[in-house]
# Entry
Amino acid sequence: MDAEGTEYPIHPVMRPRLSVEELLAAKNVQPIRSLDDLRADTFESDEEVEEFIAFIYAERHRDLA
# Structure
């Protein structure tokens, strides 16, 4: 019991197990057919990409100095 006197089940509620195929079908997932499927326009310019790479590099090496 918790502070308010509510009892909780000892075991979590069991949900039916689904196969990978069933999970993929439920999400309507499609296979990747080309690299274009993975493309995202995250950065607006090459300068932004370079700034991001420099930031990541600096963060990864910050505690090594």
Observations:
- The chain has a mean pLDDT of 86.
- The two ends are 52 Å apart (CA to CA).
